[in-house]
Amino acid sequence: MEVVPLESDTEVATLAADTIEAAVRTRPDAVLGLATGSTPLLTYRELIRRHHAGTGPSYARVWCFTLDEYVGLPPGHPGSYRATIARELTDPLGIPAECVRGPDPTEAHLASAGERYEAELKAAGGVEVQLLGIGSDGHLAFNEPGSSLGSLTRIKTLAEQTRQDNARFFGSSDEVPRHVLTQGLGTILRARHLLLLATGPGKAHALAAAVEGPLSATCPASVLQLHPHATVLVDPAAAQGLERRAHYREVYDAKPAWQGL
Ligand code: PGA
Predict the structure, then answer these.
(1) What is the set of active-site residues?
(2) Is the CB of 222 under 6 A from ligand 1?
(3) Is the pTM above the cut of 0.85?
(4) Is the pLDDT of residue 75 over 90?
(5) What integer pLDDT is reported at residue 260 of this predicted model?
(6) 179-182 and 68-70: which strand pairing?
């Protein structure tokens, strides 16, 4: 795992945007793995800014797969992740709705939704770069503490902490759905490059556990330790708990210029 301590959340967004753009330039039909939540928003705004400035790559042929989706919201609900990702990124980049896929939360088909999503991911050739946030309880996508490290896409029940954390998108935690469909930790591990962004003091504890603690289902984000190409971009507030923070930065500064992230 490569941990990159940066000066600010703006630097995190700049480097994340650089990485996504590089993937699309290398492979114009790349499959991008997108995350929702507050953390990636600065990155999405930066990608849109560059797109409007005419300096970004063409997104005409990319495919996007989201990590997770709430179950039980009416179709088109602004809090759904399908609506969120369209509003915050894919519509402004001009990516057609049919090229943006997510787990299907239709009640009648829930039992097979996980398997169908896994099949779609496989048919698309797998994810090139998977953007990730980390929950304050260490969750990855909606894989809450205790999730199997080998899990695939399936229905899960949200932890109370997560419903409270996400209340800001709904008005109150009571309105946050109890169930979600989420890529499993095993699904996420299949992406070719994992790019985890962590910003703000609320993530310091979970990030330290994920990066420097033991590999454990108790901290689902620690599964990144198993991946051959995982990068963690972190701002000073989220890096507070990292014992080897100075070392990570030295390693990053000493990287050969050709190596990239
Ligand atoms: P956040 O959520 O980016 O809104 O903090 C991250 C997550 O829950 O994975």
Answers:
(1) 68, 137, 139, 144
(2) no
(3) yes
(4) no
(5) 87
(6) antiparallel
